[in-house]
Amino acid sequence: MRSFRVALTAAATAAASVGLALTGTGTAQAATPLPSHVFAPYFEAWTGDSPAALSAQSGAKHLTMAFLQTASAGSCTPYWNGDTSMPIAASTFGSDIKTIQANGGDVIPSFGGYTADTTGTEIADSCTDVSQIAAAYEKVVTTYDISRLDMDIEVDSLDKSAGIDRRNKAIKMVEDWAAANGRKLEISYTLPTTTSGLADNSKALLRNAVSNGTRVDVVNIMTFDYYDNQPHDMAKDTQTAAQGLYNTLASLYPSKTPAQLWNMVGIIEMPGVDDFGPAETFSLANAHTVYDWAVSKGINTLSFWALQRDNGSCPGGSAADNCSGIQQNTWDFSHIFEPFTGGSTTPSNDFSVALSPASGSVTAGQSTTATVKTAVTQGSAQTVNLSVSGAPAGVTASLSPTSVTAGGSSTLTLSTTSAALNGTYTVTVTGSNASGSHSATYALTVTGGSGNQCTAAPWDKTKVYTGGQTVSYKSHTWKAKWWTQGEEPGTTGEWGVWQDLGPC
């Protein structure tokens, strides 16, 4: 029996090696390479959410998909989340990934993660056959036609030297296969960090990659969860951690220029409150600071954990998978980081304006309110000046305050008098600053008024009117008896061109 099992293992290894060499044939029509600067937040693949839908809603065109791992220790077959119902196949996320790619984005499948690292299901720890590990990597590349794979090595796996060596050898095999078949394939490592850079075990992992001839294109550091019981300026800590990584890379790759070394750096933030607690809170202000710094340094990848956390549904809370724990609008962090993709300079600033609710009814003599919401859609938050127009006679519109910092809100108050006419009116709130202007409208319905809203078009002194046409003027409806232009209704007398049809 032992000999039979050995024979089966040898046959499987040979088959995997052949598969690695042959399945790439004819794959020169490969995925589009990622931009040299890319924003790719993590997507939690176990939630049941659609990555394509969240990509569209958030504006994040590129996603890091977490995670791929084996179902049990000792296996060589990876699944999404280690779930055997989610194989590496077009049936699992295939249509979503195609949609994202069709919209000009892409995904970065990530192997490993905390759970895999601590349960022996990270594939290079689980599987002792380098060829089968390489075949699994290749299958992800060809199944989803992607151009980057990520290796998320966080905890126990950092101290498993055999797994580290197998992983780097397998990556080297896949890199050689991709090069032979005309495919652009990048490899990134995601590693924990201190505020001053990588720990020794992470440095050892990268040294092993160098010794195996394995090309590492990007090293992403997780600039959160420091657990050092120290006060933190999370934006400053990001910069010092990245500088430490840069210094390590400079020693490992002495022939690279400073620009090339910075372009190997990736940053992963955790919006809001991280797992340690409120002492490690990454704020929206921190995000703006990190964005500007990332642009100035020319780093490769800007990311955060995770897209499903980019909302303020649990302000004052602790770390969670589905909210940030701070006060924010949905997608605030995404909007700050989005312009990083493909960019090399700080983007122009822009904002949006919305009204909540966008319509309402009021009885003449009373008032109603709506909230004017602004948000940063690009760049950093700037002052937005607000104005309102379109209020009809008998209605007074006011804003408090009349200027906000993008991301802030104001209150629109619509006060009516008993003289207000019944009808539905469009009131427009406009926000403006140096970047331009944006507007939102409110549909105000007045009831119980002293009359009805005129429905005919207002009289225009420059327009030609012919017999039978009607206009509204001074709250009355008028009908032209014959051709006329420039004659003001109500001034031509009983026998004149305009017939008064009464108040409206």
What does this structure look like?
It holds the Pfam family Glyco_hydro_18. The protein has 12 helices and 26 strands. It is α/β, with parallel strands linked by helices. The chain has 3 domains: 310 residues, TIM Barrel, CATH 3.20.20.80; 98 residues, Immunoglobulins (Immunoglobulin-like), CATH 2.60.40; 40 residues, Carbohydrate-binding module superfamily 5/12 (Seminal Fluid Protein  PDC-109 (Domain B), Ribbon). Strand 10 and strand 11 form a beta hairpin. The N terminus is likely disordered.
Briefly say what this structure is.
The protein has 12 helices and 26 strands. By secondary structure, the chain is α/β, with parallel strands linked by helices.
